[in-house]
Amino acid sequence: MIEFESVTFTHPSGVTAIRDVSLQIAPGELVAIVGANGAGKTTLVKHINGLLKPTKGTVRVFELDTRKTSVADLSRHVGIVFQNADHQLFSETVQEEIAFGLRNLGLKAEMVNKRLDWALRSFELEQYRDVAPLILSGGEKKRLCLACVLAWDPEVIILDEPTVGQDYTQKEKLEQMIRMLLTRGRTAIVVSHDIEFVWSLQPRVLVMAGGQILSDGPADQVFTDDNLLENANVRRPQLVEFARLLDAGPEKPFRSVHDARMWIVHQLKR
After folding, report:
1. What are the CA-CA distances from residue 154 to residues 151, 173, 223 (Å)?
2. pLDDT digits (tens), the chain, 270 positions
């Protein structure tokens, strides 16, 4: 369980980034956080692994008070992939980057090698095993950061703008990876401006603006609330727009391109 209780965070400069946030996320949930730049999304998730401590209020992660728990201890439960990959990479080679965290967890060499091979293969990084991370492309760096976190298999995975620099195929693989994590009881939190990717996941959606949570609900409820989206400066998914343009369209927005195609085929056969 992740719990925010009346949490406010104010930077040393005096700027308040999140204000009076109360929130609960249960184990095994898939949650997406959306909102305009400066809404407080990244500040919120940095409280989950203790990188930021509340100015007021309390954050608990698996009953651990983050004020009283080190980042190192929280990292055993929470893995976060940052928006800027260059802030996360530091090792001389790709394989050393992935192995570093595994060794810090105290895993034996055999298990480190097993998880390393899985990560390199799963994120198509095998050919870069001995390459310096900082010379990779932006998309490859992002995949490496994902590999580093998922290799140690934390209970909570936070992905901050995970689709940046990824093509359609990589996005599909990322979606499959997230769904696989959910089947294993992991909690996944996705911070993203990629509304189409969020829509495809159909998660619980938190909409933020001005450091506060404006709405918290299922994707098909949140992304059809025009007033809410306008106030938060968040656009509707294309499939929601498409469904609205159709005469006598579906009762609910299409959840995938496949659903849209099947509906159109059915209408043509009528």
Report:
1. 9, 19, 30
2. 899 999 999 999 999 999 999 999 999 999 999 999 999 999 999 999 999 999 999 999 999 999 999 998 998 899 999 888 888 888 999 999 999 989 988 889 999 999 999 999 989 999 999 999 989 998 899 899 989 999 988 999 999 999 988 888 889 988 998 998 999 999 999 999 999 999 999 999 999 999 999 999 999 999 999 999 999 999 999 999 998 888 777 888 888 888 888 888 888 887
- B/e letters for 5-24, b = 16+ CB within 10 Å, e = fewer, are eebebeeeeeebbbbebeee
Checking DSSP bridges between strand 78-81 and strand 156-160, what pairing results, if any? Answer: parallel
CB count within 10 Å of CB 120 equals 20
Distance (Å, whole) CA 71 – CA 118 = 26
CB 228 within 8 A of CB 55: no
Domain boundaries, given as residue ranges, for the chain:
2-219
Write the DSSP assignment of 1-54 as a string of letters: -EEEEEEEEE-TTS-EEEEEEEEEE-TT-EEEEE-STTSSHHHHHHTTTTSS--
Look at residues 3, 1, 10 and name the one whose alpha carbon lies nearest to residue 59: 3
Fold assignment, 2-219: Rossmann fold (3.40.50)
Burial of 121 (0-12, 13-18, 19+ CB in 10 A): exposed
* 261 CB burial (10 A radius; 0-12, 13-18, 19+): exposed
